Amino acid sequence: MINTRKLLDLAMRLGASDAEVYAMAGKIVTVETEHGELGHAEESISIGAGIRVIVDGAEGYSSSNDPTKYEDTVRAAIACARARPRDPALKGLAHPWDKYPEVRGTFDQRVQEIGLDQSVDIADRMIKAAKEEEGVSVTAAKFSSIMTDAVIANTNGINVEDRETVIIGYVDVIIKEKDDVSTAFEYDISRSIELDLESVGHRASKLARNSIGSQPIKEQSCDVLLGPHAFGDLLEATLLSSISAENVQKGRSGLMGKIGQPIATKGLTIIDDGLLEGGLGSSPADDEGVASQQTTIVKDGKLESFLYDLYTAGKEGRKSTGNGIRGSYSTPPKVGPRNIRFEFPRSDVLKETDQGIYVNSIIGAHTANPLSGDFSVECRNAFIVEGGTLAQPIRSLMISGNIFDLLRKIDGMGSDDRPVGTIISPTVRVKNIKATPGA
Amino acid sequence: MTDFYDVREIRGYTTAIAYDNGEIDEVSTHFLSGAAVRAIIGGSYGFTTVDDPANVKDAISAAITLAKRLDGISPRKKIELKAIPEGKNEVYMIKKNPADISLMHKQEMLKAVEDEMRSRDRRGLLKSTRINYSESYGHNIHYTSDGQRIEYDLYRTGFSCSAVAGEGSSLQAGRRSFFNVGGFEVFDQCDPLALAREAVDEAYELLSAKSAPSGRFDVICDPELAGVFIHEAVGHASEADTVLDGDSCLEGHTGEQIGSELVTVRDDPTLLKYGYYPYDSEGVPSHPTTLIEKGIMKSYLNSRETAAKLGGKPGNARAGGLARPVVRMSNTFIDNGMLSKDEVFEGVNGIYLKGSRGGQVNTGEGVFQFNAVMGYLVKDGQIGEHIRDVSLSGNTLKTLKSIARVGNDLDFHSGRCGKAGQGVPVGDGSPHILIKDAVVGGSS
């Protein structure tokens, strides 16, 4: 890949006291529908590097995907650092670990070997499965396999390489019958090739079928079952920014000053797990070379810790929790979650619910207020729950509330964990949520 | 006939500066280069990207191979492309090259914004401030296997500032931004210090705002929120690729009265707003499109493929970076009506909503949701108590008919649209509008 040694040496010659190269090579193979049939095949290869330097106690960052520009990139990073005053909070880059933890299930050789023919075959089976249900049209379907190879090297002697694979299948369907229209989507994502995408197709079309014939409901406050998509999307938009030490230190978190205080229902434990087997956020090290770990954020309802990268940890004189994350080589590491998972007594929450509402997914989660935690979102594929089963589909429904309040009102959790963004999200039952009929 | 392909080559850079709580948080420069190739064989697209435009020959043959193989495994009806219209568009020339302005000067400007926010903090409630500056430059080349070629430069520059204020256990954020196509002259098009003050005032106002009621109300939307409404509720469903996917509630409505006669909606990439482009990502010269005229559905937005299938003019295929071109909006707006802002408010009992935290739409069912930053109760046309965290949900076809008043104070705001996982810059615009009997979701 990229000669990291050469770039680090150049940075030191140009006056850096510390330097780091994060190089990433990636390949994505995708097949996708065009108007309902597979008609698009894509292969993208990218290699790029981000260079972080410290000069006179200030940090600078630059990146490039142009192989002729890597040395210019080092110079640009130095110029960026020189444009800043010394930052007393900056405690340097990561130091090598004796031994990085072993993480299982994040690379599957078979994913690397998927070619176009196999991709078409897998996508085709997912689409056919969706179309088995009468009246279903596929509006979009996509299958991608992704391979990445990342290297972090710094002048403290860190040199970590991590190879990872991901596959993802997605399908979006519609049923139009007389004056009635219903849509549904489903996807699954995995590090290994063991993924049942036919079931993804079946589930999407069954959900659309069950959602036909929807009726409005009355305004009410009731028990709401949030399916994994709905619960995961809501937390992703609100809770995750509140547990970042960066946001806490900068006065932008609703959980500021609440360490040790109850913030969630008793018995609920929330863990950020960088070591989870097969987890989409799992790896031996984070994106600045700090060993991955498990961090308890909430223990038995009480806020226990925020998430830290090296910089925010240095500010408080504590250790990084291994949460220095980059979206790509073009951005410096920032505090971010790995895999957020929940420990809570699990049960068949649907079966136990005599009366309430089930919400499969929501529209507009990203419009929630991350500071206050207030949200007001439109629901998709929602149903009235009666006697432990899904009954009448609901036409247009808004639910609103506050995410911190919602965490205190969780009173049941299913065992249907699935990854939604960085959250390993189950169906949860929440008491007393406000539901407003939509348009 | 030789195999058809087209190529986009991009070379450019972005520079970002972040000022956080009075200190520089980030100064970074990123170089981006690459080529994206699209080949069409029969009914299949083959698409490849490479980082180094020097390798474009390999990328072309790989794209052709992909398309051929896919066409062999999964044959579809042949893809036809509408011809690229003759003629060249004028390309906006920057007035002040941001690269000629020192990092120090840019920092001083951000520092002045920060100072203004601090001095506006009259009751000492400001908990944090953040200012982000960015400039980006791209040299774009587009050429096709049948010999058409265009080449142009595009700059985008701007800044955002946000203020978080807190009182007791309550925290609220106010935010303002100004981004546009162009160089450093964009700072002559706005008043950064006034925006800084507005951000602080907004955070303060939100602290005293109450939770919103929910139910059905007559709602007045300010230009920013109404712009997001029209982007979500009408724009996405007007994208012809979505129509062909069978996923648009506007399919089959061309020529029909789908909205109030007061409603005219246009998309215009030639306007010098954030969604400006001289050529789209298929090399087609940009042009305005009227989507809805006096309530009648007129036209979809088209790529070369959808224009060939559905009729209409190509010119709305856009790509985020090196990703594949898909049909997208540019600067989308509700055109001016006859009423002054005061006349829009006259006698209204309901809610006034301002600013946007974004929105989302399900184009197939025509159901949308969007969220206002700030609201007020309105009684007999007079603005009353503050409310916050108000969402609107609605059905596209019903809501367009419920637009009862349209102002004459059209204004644009910059945004990013995330269709197909690709972020592209867009402008959303509208005058003040009144929507009758809209569904509002609040948490009180």
Short précis:
The complex is a heterodimer of chains A (439) and B (444). Chain A has helices at residues 4-13, 70-82, 109-112, 116-131, 197-210, 228-242, 245-249, 310-315, 349-352, 403-408, and strands at residues 18-34, 37-55, 58-64, 136-154, 159-177, 180-190, 220-226, 269-273, 294-299, 302-303, 324-325, 334-335, 340-343, 355-363, 374-386, 389-394, 397-402, 410-413, 418-420, 423-425, 428-437. Chain A has two domains: 4-209, PmbA/TldD superfamily (PmbA/TldD fold, 2-Layer Sandwich); 214-439, no CATH class.
Q: Care to count the β-strands of chain B? A: 21
Mean pLDDT of chain B: 95
Distance N to C terminus of chain A: 55 Å
What percentage of residues of chain A falls in helices of 4 or more residues?
Answer: 10-25%
Structural domains of chain B: how many? 2
Q: Point out poorly predicted stretches of chain B.
A: none
**Biggest sheet record of chain A:** 6 strands, antiparallel
Q: Using the alpha-carbon principal axes, give the shape of chain A.
A: globular
What is the percentage of strand-forming residues of chain B? 35-45%
N-to-C order of helices and strands of chain B: EEEHHEEEHEEHHEEEHEEEHEEEHEEEE
Strand order of the largest sheet of chain A: 3-2-1-4-5-6
Main sheet properties of chain B: 6 strands, antiparallel
**Uncertain segments of chain A:** none
Structural class of chain A: alpha+beta
Write the layout of secondary structure elements.
The complex is a heterodimer of chains A (439) and B (444).
Chain A: H1 4-13, E1 18-34, E2 37-55, E3 58-64, H2 70-82, H3 109-112, H4 116-131, E4 136-154, E5 159-177, E6 180-190, H5 197-210, E7 220-226, H6 228-242, H7 245-249, E8 269-273, E9 294-299, E10 302-303, H8 310-315, E11 324-325, E12 334-335, E13 340-343, H9 349-352, E14 355-363, E15 374-386, E16 389-394, E17 397-402, H10 403-408, E18 410-413, E19 418-420, E20 423-425, E21 428-437
Parallel strand pairs in A: 7-14
Antiparallel strand pairs in A: 1-2, 1-4, 2-3, 4-5, 5-6, 7-21, 8-9, 8-13, 9-10, 11-12, 14-15, 15-16, 15-17, 17-21, 18-21, 19-20
Helix pairs in contact in A: 1-2, 4-5
Chain B: E1 4-20, E2 23-41, E3 44-50, H1 56-73, H2 103-119, E4 126-144, E5 149-167, E6 170-181, H3 192-208, E7 210-211, E8 215-221, H4 223-235, H5 240-244, E9 265-267, E10 289-293, E11 296-297, H6 304-310, E12 317-318, E13 326-327, E14 331-334, H7 341-345, E15 350-362, E16 367-379, E17 382-395, H8 396-401, E18 403-406, E19 411-417, E20 424-430, E21 433-441
Parallel strand pairs in B: 7-17, 8-15, 14-20
Antiparallel strand pairs in B: 1-2, 1-4, 2-3, 4-5, 5-6, 8-21, 9-10, 9-14, 10-11, 12-13, 15-16, 16-17, 17-21, 18-21, 19-20
Helix pairs in contact in B: 2-3
